[in-house]
Design brief:
The chain is an alpha+beta fold and about 300 residues long. Helix content is about 20%, strand content about 30%. It has helices spanning about 55, 60-75, 85-95, 180-195, 215-220, 225-230, and strands at about 1-5, 35-40, 75-85, 100-105, 115-120, 125-135, 155-160, 165-175, 200-205, 225, 235, 255-260, 265-270, 285-290. The termini are far apart. About 45% of the residues are buried.
């Protein structure tokens, strides 16, 4: 568990520019609501000047915009994908000392590209956490079984809600980008895993598949539903979540999902399209949901649960 260190309210985008304030998609929320957010921050890549998006992809360009975005949103729980260790340290610094993180690298030594959960400790207390690999041997770091060439992981944290009471579970993951077989097997594994958890559950991440795909159907055939599909208010007009450094696009594929159990009430949910200083902080856009559970977190809202055929 890693504490962060500072919390700048305003951060300049680029050298010599004045600090900028941005209007968040959601921003901080009050109890009993929780602001959940998932974001593929795009791993830092070696600089390749010949690619179309080489300048936009530079981490040194994107980090100031990302700091601004996180400073404005201040989610209760933030799920991150694709962070290298140095990027992870910078994200912790951007969020500040009120946040703690749990996560793992995907490789055998738990190094390399990471997925992480950042938790606002003024609202939530970390009770326990663990990591699993999306394979037939989930407790073996670096393991692969489903046809993916690189290891894929998930991180689970159980949280105590210090304001509203009760406990909840949050899982973050990143499915394989090439193998549909791997994505489906990973979905079966995580559906089984989340079905066994006692209490409210949220599953978030970059699933590298669209809504209605076999992986999405598998994950939402049990206790989980897509937060955007049951929200009282949708935050976007139908944007995809992979804009590839361009503006948000209507009709694009929504590869990043935020799933919750059917007991949840979702006030608002959708893709955020903020571009601090005109800069896209990642090739993906974040996905948000404002969620609450009934008092005591033990009452089922059956009207939000899809009916089995």
């Amino acid at each position: 568990m890693t504490p962060a260190t500072s919390s700048p309210a305003d951060t300049p985008v680029g050298s010599g520019t004045a600090p900028e304030r941005i209007v968040p998609t959601i921003g901080p929320v009050d109890a009993p609501d929780l602001h959940l957010m998932t974001y593929n921050v795009r791993r830092r890549m070696p600089q390749v000047l010949t690619t179309r998006h080489a300048l936009a992809d530079r981490w040194s360009t994107r980090l100031p915009a990302l700091r601004l975005l996180l400073g404005a949103e201040r989610p209760s729980v933030l799920g991150i994908q694709e962070a290298l260790p140095d990027q992870s340290a910078q994200l912790a610094d951007a969020l500040g000392e009120d946040y703690a993180s749990v996560g793992t690298g995907r490789d055998r030594d738990r190094g390399g590209e990471r997925i992480e959960l950042y938790v606002d400790t003024t609202r939530l207390r970390i009770v326990r956490h663990d990591a699993l690999w999306l394979s037939a041997t989930p407790g073996v770091p670096g393991s692969r079984s489903y046809g993916n060439m690189i290891p894929r992981t998930a991180v689970h944290v159980e949280l105590e809600d210090l304001a509203a009471g009760g406990r909840l579970h949050v899982v973050v993951t990143h499915f394989d980008h090439l193998s549909a077989r791997s994505r489906l097997h990973s979905a079966v594994q995580l559906r089984t895993y989340t079905d066994a958890l006692d209490g409210p559950v949220a599953l978030m991440g970059d699933f590298n598949a669209g809504v209605g795909s076999p992986a999405h159907r598998e994950l939402t055939r049990g206790r989980l539903v897509d937060s955007r599909e049951i929200a009282d208010e949708r935050l976007d007009p139908g944007w995809g979540s992979f804009s590839n450094y361009g503006p948000p696009r209507t009709g694009g594929r929504r590869l990043d999902w935020l799933l919750v159990d059917g007991d949840a009430h979702v006030d608002r949910a959708g893709v955020g399209g903020i571009r601090p200083g005109g800069i896209a902080p990642s090739d993906h856009d974040p996905v948000h949901a404002v969620v609450r559970w009934a008092s005591g977190q033990d009452h089922v809202h059956d009207e939000h649960r899809p009916q089995e055929p």
